[in-house]
Description:
By secondary structure, the protein is of the alpha/beta class. The protein has helices at 19-26, 39-46, 62-67, 86-91, 104-120, 122-130, 156-167, 181-187, 194-200, 220-225, 243-251, 291-311, 327-349, 369-382, 393-399, 471-481, 516-523, and strands spanning 9-12, 30-33, 51-54, 73-76, 95-98, 148-152, 171-175, 190-191, 203-206, 230-234, 255-260, 280-282, 355-362, 403-408, 417-424, 429-437, 441-447, 450-454, 459-466, 486-493, 503-510, 528-535. The protein has 4 domains: 9-101 and 293-311, NAD(P)-binding Rossmann-like Domain (Rossmann fold, 3-Layer(aba) Sandwich), CATH 3.40.50.720; 104-282, NAD(P)-binding Rossmann-like Domain (Rossmann fold, 3-Layer(aba) Sandwich), CATH 3.40.50.720; 326-447, CATH 3.30.1330.90; 459-536, ACT domain (Alpha-Beta Plaits), CATH 3.30.70.260.
Amino acid sequence: MEQIMTKPKVLISDKMDPNAARIFEERGCDVDVITGETPEQLIARIGEYDGLAIRSSTTVTDEILAAATNLKVIGRAGIGVDNVDIPKASARGVVVMNTPFGNSITTAEHAIAMLLALARQIPEANTRTQAGEWPKKDFMGVEVTGKTLGLIGAGNIGAIVASRAQGLRMKVIAYDPFLTPDRAVELGVEKVDLGMLVQRADFITLHTPLTDETRNILNRERLEQCKPGVRIVNCARGGLIDELALKDLLDSDHIAGAALDVFAKEPPAADHPLFGTPGFICTPHLGASTTEAQVNVALQVAEQMADYLVDGGVTNALNVPSLSAEEAPRLRPYIALGEKLGSLVGQLEGPDVNSLTIEVEGAAAELNMKPITAAVLAGMMRSWSDSINMVNAPILAKERGLDVREVRHGREGNYHTLLRVTATTGTRKREVAGSLFGGSEMRLVEIAGTRIETDLDGHMIYVVNEDAPGFIGRLGSTLGEAGVNIGNFHLGRRLPDRHRGGDAVLLLTLDQRPTPEVLDAICELEGVKKVKALSF
Ligand SMILES: NC(=O)C1=CN([C@@H]2O[C@H](COP(=O)(O)OP(=O)(O)OC[C@H]3O[C@@H](n4cnc5c(N)ncnc54)[C@H](O)[C@@H]3O)[C@@H](O)[C@H]2O)C=CC1
Ligand SMILES: O=C(O)C(=O)COP(=O)(O)O
C-alpha cells in the first residue's frame, strides 16, 4: 500500500519497551521517544511523523489527526483502541493497527489475581498488617472453588480467564452475543443471557471492548439485579460499569466487592467516590503490565508498523484489509497500475462516475483484489479531490454511494495479465485496460474501444478525431507553433472493426502542460471530436 521513499519517521508517545525503538531503527525508520506530552504539544509535533506508536495514555483525537499531515499509521502496542478516533483516522487515510494477542495472557492473569484478591481481601489485610496491626479476626474470605464465574465477553482474554477459572474449579457461564454454541462447548462454558448471568454469578468479570453497545453494560439496574454478595472484576475498560451505582451498592453491601483496573476517566480524580469504599480495590490500569506482555506488544507493533511504512504490508489493521509483507511486493505494480487507470477514468469522466467495475484476468486474477480496488478508487477520486489514499478511498466511495464491483476472470485473454476498469456515469460508459510488461512496467493497452500501448506519465493529451489523412500533420504543427514538444505519440483506431474513416484515438505525451489556448487550438482542428489534457 502506501510506501514512502525517504526514511520513515516514527514517534513513540507512550512508555514502551525499548525493543520497539530498536526494531524501528533496524527496519530503517527514524524514531523519537517522547512521552507524557500534552495534546497541544503532540499537535505541535505530530506533523513531522509517518507513524505514531501508542499505548493507552495517548488519546488520538481528530484535532491531533488534523495536524498529522504526514501520518500513515497508528500502531497500538496493546489491544483496546477506544483511545483512537478510528473513523476520523480512516477518513484521513491513516491505518490503525493493534496487537490483538500480545498481552492477553497477562491481562487474564491480572483478572484472576484481582478475583482472588477480592475473595481474600488481600490488599486491605496487607496494608493493615504492615501498619503494625494483627487484624486476623476482621478478615473472613470466601472460597472460589465451586462458585459461578460470569464472564461478560468471551473473546481472547475471556477465554483465557475461563480456562484459568476452571483450573480453580469454578463453574463458568458467559454472556457474549458473538459466542457460538460450538465455541462455548470448546471453552467448557455455559452460554447465558446477561439477565441470567447477573442473577447466577458469584463473581463477574468483564472482557469486552468499550463500544456504544457495551458502554454501561453493568448499569445501575443490572447491578441491582446481581446476586447479593457478588464480587465484580473489571480489567477491560472503564465505562463498562456505572461507577456511582457501584459505589452505592458496595455501601449497601448488595455488592460484596469490586476490583477495577480501569476507570471511566484515567487517571481518576484523587477524590473518586469509590476510593476508600469498603470492599473496593483497584490498580492503575496494570492489566497489560508484565515484562513478557510489554516485550511482546512492543516487538509486534514495531514490526507491523515497519512492514507498512517500509514494505506496504498490513497486519492487524482495524480499518483496512490485511496484506502480508510477502504479498505487498507482488501487488505493488498492480497498485501503481490501478491508481493510474483510476486516475485516467477519473480525469476523463470527472466526479459524475456512479459505478465502477474492476476486472482482473490472467496473472492478476490470482491476486488479492481488495488493495487493487482500493488503488483504482484512490486514483480516480484523487483526480477530483485531495487527501485521498487507499485507506480512505473505499470509505469515501461508499459514502458517495458509488457502486463498486470486482470481477475475477478465469479465462485466458490476449495479455499475460490484465486489469480493466469500467466507469459509468448517468449517460456514458468509459472502459480502459492496462497490463504489466516484464512483470512490472505498466502499459495502458485499451481506451475507448481502441487498442493502444502507452505508459501514463507526466503531461498528456487525449484526442478523439475522425480518422482522415493530414490530421496528424495539422496537430503536430499546432503544437509546434505553440512551442510544445511531443515526447511520445500513440495512435489507434476504434475496435471492433478498426476500419478506415472511423474514429481514431490519440494519446500524446508532452514535455510541458498544455495551456488552455493550445487545447482550444486543437479543438478547432477539422475532425476533432474530443480533447482532454491529462496529468499523471
Ligand atoms: N486492563 C488492561 O490493561 C487491558 C484491557 N484490555 C481490554 O480487554 C478487552 C477485551 O480484549 P480481548 O479479549 O482481547 O478482545 P476480543 O475482541 O478477543 O474479545 C472481546 C469479546 O467481547 C465480545 N463482545 C462484544 N460486544 C459485546 C457485548 N455487547 N456484550 C458482550 N460481549 C461482547 C466479543 O464478541 C468478543 O468475544 C479489550 O477490548 C481491551 O479494552 C485488553 C488488554 C489489556
Ligand atoms: O491493551 C490494552 O487494551 C490495554 O488496555 C493495555 O493498556 P496499556 O498499554 O497498558 O496502557
